[in-house]
Amino acid sequence: RYSEFSDFNLDLRKVPKKFTFPPFPEKILIGNTQEANIEKRMQSLNAYLSVIVEEKDFYTSPVFKKFISK
Questions:
Q1: What is the pLDDT of residues 36-47, one digit of tens each?
Q2: What is the pTM of this model?
Q3: What distance in Å separates the CA atoms of residue 37 and residue 62, rounded to the nearest whole number?
């Protein structure tokens, strides 16, 4: 769910690291079930996660491990 990823993003930003975060996909309130919107948000989320998993400080953090274990 979007809210779980959003919470993960907020928690991950608390991990001490000088890092410029990639943009996090915005929540879509109207039209969130339209195929084009789903595809766009999925691509944005994939881009976000691909940057995060490259940063050792993040993928070894308790925040990341907790999120992945859900």
A1: 878 888 888 898
A2: 0.70
A3: 31
